[in-house]
Amino acid sequence: MRAPSRARRSLVTAGTAVATAALLLAGCAQDPDEQPAPGGSSADGKARTTITVGVFGAFGLQEAGLYDEYMAQNPGIRIEQTSIERNENYYPQLLTHLGTGSGLADIQAVEVNNIAEITATQADKLVDLGKAPGVDKAAYLPWKWAQGTAKGGATVGLGTDIGPQGICYRKDLFEAAGLPTDRAAVGALWAGDWNKYLEAGKAYKAKAGDGKAFVDSASGVMAAVTGSSAQRYYDDQGKVVYKTNPAVRGAFDLAASFATEGLSAKLQQFTPSWDQGFSNGAFATVSCPAWMLGYIQDKAGPAGKDKWDVAQAPKPSNWGGSFLVVPKAGKHTEEAAKLAAWLTAPAQQAKLFEKRGSFPSASAAYALPSVSGAQHAYFGGAPIGAIFAKAAESVPVTVLGPKDLVIAQNLADIGMLQVDQKGRSPQEGWEAAVKAIDNALDQ
Description:
- Keywords: Signal.
- The chain is of the alpha/beta class.
- It is 40% helix and 14% strand.
- It has helices at residues 66-73, 87-100, 112-121, 142-147, 171-176, 183-190, 194-208, 218-226, 246-260, 272-279, 292-300, 333-343, 346-356, 369-372, 384-394, 404-422, 426-440, and strands at residues 12-13, 16-17, 49-56, 77-84, 107-111, 158-170, 213-215, 283-289, 308-312, 318-325, 359-360.
- The strands form 2 sheets. Strands 3, 4, 5, 6, 7, 8, 9, 10 and 11 form a 9-stranded mixed sheet that branches. It has a two-stranded antiparallel ribbon with strand order 1-2.
- The longest helix is centred in the last third of the chain and has 19 residues, at 404-422.
């Protein structure tokens, strides 16, 4: 399932309210080819080196004040950021600039759905950040580090955030259906098995009655289940295997059961009707990466406070995340590598989480108070730092492929949507998705 280009949401950390959630895909649509302002001079009159950073959407680094902090610590450095609002516009330009070796920022952001293509086809054009000063491989989640590492061993992408998943649920709707509302008891309903999540949905429907949806969409379930698997659409040799991979077909069929059993609200995620569903009680649960908490708070509004809570997902799964890379064609590769290392260090990732809701990919940050003690008042004081850290540490090392996003989008929007909204059979939905994917991949 595709995530929004950059979903940056607010938290309540350690019981203290942080800024209101950033809007989806907010950001200035500047041209990354624009020439940055002159570096200027530092307080002592010496010329400053300008490091340019190219990102998509409201990436969060600038908004969290990290650039200002770095420049205060390094008066000889000036940081200039450009942002393109949507990754689908940003990424093709990045590939073009890498191909020509021009028009590149000193540091470029890469979304997780694109990192496999970057490591497979562009690694020779990027600096090995695993060797940058201050970078400690042991401080990062192994699966996230692996995603940014090319086959030759060079770690060309340093992870920023991730999207470990829980299950967000409506306590009032659970109570009305005779289900437990305590988050530990709720998590126990489906612990260890996504099929138990389906059974919980059937139990909910039996008490709540027809027309009371348990999940927002079958596609959301499919994305969460698929994200629990180490191998999805490609094998470790780079071969497309989604058609024969039982994990993918199993996820598709299980998710389709939520539609055929009448447990889905039949909504398409990130549409106005889905947004409205958070506030009007259209569904009782939603697969919920860390960044979605602020999204729910935004869409459900003040009336939803203390109605929503979050529990552990049946199995650890991830949805979302990004990386920073340093092109060799940049003007200041050495200084850029130092900055990229600093921005992705555990201490800075913890600050980004505290201020912007971006969950750290540096596991060394999980013991820091701003993460370990993080609670979300809107979700009944849920200990979100502990919940999502536990999920993140157990996510499998996933094999990524260059066209993961194409495959996932078609499985969701062509295949599952037909089952969920048009009443097609799961087999018909699967066949429609396979045909669309084959066409997209020229197979």
